[in-house]
Specification:
Shape: elongated
Number of helices: 19
Strand content: 15-25%
CATH class of the largest domain: Alpha Beta
Strand order of the largest sheet: 3-2-1-4-5-6-7
Mean pLDDT: 94
CATH architecture of the largest domain: 3-Layer(aba) Sandwich
Number of domains: 2
Helix content: 40-55%
CATH superfamily of the largest domain: 3-Deoxy-D-manno-octulosonic-acid transferase, N-terminal domain
Largest sheet: 7 strands, parallel
Distance between the termini: 27 Å
Radius of gyration: 23 Å
Number of strands: 14
Structural class: alpha/beta
Length: 428
């Protein structure tokens, strides 16, 4: 693509950002860190490496990379880590605290990722002057990539994932992205690799283990005595968790929950909406299913057998998995991509997912084929699988042992990315 064409494309992109910024200020989520996003309150310190982690999930991946990044430098390796969300920022702050206090020759500074206006990004990259940049998963920003290219910053996109829909969007401007694209892409699967190859060229793309497997290396079941929910769920109860369920699957989920309570009259159902503002929708669904239920925030004692708990508090899904006998992982009975079913496994409960889990295809089909997790074709099949698990519950230790073996065989992503980052930094 000619320089004139790139300049023309970025000029149009700049105009779009100028028009959008006043509207973005009205967004309550973007108000958090606004001064950093716009560079209105100064700049971060200069850094050798810039890591961009879009939100909380990617921030944890950045944390894993940083823990593996052990380089031999004459001076401290300065790292700028950026994110787009408050959750990501809080996670990066914890990571920075841990790593900075470990005194391993790495100094980490968290910051909000600036808006991708070419003018803002050129100022930021020119000031920070990184030698290399690491983008995690699918953060393909033209302003950022253009600024890096102008400053001679070597860019690595790692733990890369790309959906067919995303690829279609990027292909609306293929020459621009191919010209500005990362020097190297490390994708988490052959399918993702093919999509990145279509956009950037196959010679730039490699396949790597997903860093999320590294994150789960130390995961394991929590002892009941340490579980914060132990007083809410009676010992040995048939507690079934419906984790991260989405409003698009309210009809099948309520049918499954109603049938479970009819089959196991003393079962306790825990419903965890993926989005907290949909709690009222799930309340109506449970009413229409004829189930007796209570909000988690209103509970003062143990749940009664044959009832449901509608979770309206954050951060308790994993402890709930730790007490469950069976679990359905949502976002999978409608074409929504699914949710993470490795979490219940590492807590010692065999998970059931619906047929739609493309967002977690990186886990590998082997996990279903080997019977470590179960896939239901539809609501009725999911119900039968949950009943079978309740009737033939595996010991929690056995489930964890199988899960850890599966995860262990697929680790090494963080180390591979750190090695590539080191090569980029050392080839100056």
């Amino acid at each position: 693509m000619s320089q004139f064409a790139i300049k023309s494309a970025l000029a149009v992109y700049s105009v779009a950002w100028k028009a959008a910024l006043p509207l973005l200020k009205l967004n309550h989520r973007l108000k958090e860190g606004w001064e950093q996003r716009t560079l209105a309150d100064g700049m971060p310190a200069q850094a050798h490496l810039w890591i961009q982690a879009a939100s909380g999930g990617e921030a944890y991946l950045a944390w894993e990379v940083l823990k593996n990044l052990k380089l031999q430098f004459d001076q401290t390796l300065r790292v700028l880590v950026t994110t787009n969300t408050r959750q990501g920022y809080d996670t990066l702050c914890r990571a920075a605290k841990e790593i900075n206090e470990s005194r391993q020759g790495i100094a980490v500074q968290p910051w909000y990722f600036p808006f991708d206006s070419p003018a803002i990004m050129q100022r930021m990259v020119a000031y920070v002057r990184p030698t290399a940049a690491l983008i995690l998963e699918t953060e393909i920003w033209p302003g950022f990539l253009n600024a890096c290219k102008k400053q001679g910053v070597r860019v690595l996109l790692a733990n890369g994932r790309m959906t067919t829909k995303s690829l279609g969007g990027y292909l609306s401007w293929p020459e621009l992205f191919r010209t500005l694209g990362p020097e190297k892409v490390m994708a988490v699967s052959k399918t993702d690799g093919r999509r990145f190859g279509t956009l950037f060229g196959r010679d730039r793309v490699w396949v790597m283990p997903n860093i999320k497997f590294d994150r789960m290396a130390g995961a394991g079941p929590m002892a009941r005595k340490d579980n914060p929910l132990k007083d809410l769920i009676p010992t040995r109860s048939d507690f079934v968790v419906f984790g991260s369920v989405r409003k698009q699957e309210t009809t099948p989920v309520k049918k499954i929950a109603r049938a479970l309570v009819r089959y196991r009259t003393k079962a306790i159902i825990g419903v965890f909406p993926r989005h907290m503002h949909h709690v009222p929708i799930w309340g109506k669904a449970l009413d229409s299913a004829g189930l007796t239920w209570t909000l988690r925030s209103e509970m003062t004692g143990p749940a009664k057998p044959g009832t449901a708990i509608l979770w309206d508090t954050f951060g308790e899904l994993v402890p709930a998995y730790g007490l469950a006998k069976a679990a359905f992982v949502g976002g999978s009975l409608a074409p929504l991509g699914g949710q993470n079913f490795l979490e219940p496994l590492t807590c010692g409960v065999t998970p059931v997912t619906g047929p739609h889990w493309t967002n977690f295809a990186w886990v590998g089909r082997d996990i279903i084929d080997e019977g470590i997790a179960h896939e239901g074709e539809d609501a009725e099949h999911v119900l039968n699988l949950l009943i079978d698990i309740l009737d033939n519950t595996k010991p929690r230790k056995e489930v964890v042992k199988e899960a850890k073996a599966y995860i262990r065989d697929r680790q090494g992503g963080a180390k591979a990315v750190s090695k590539q980052v080191a090569e980029f930094l050392n080839k100056v």
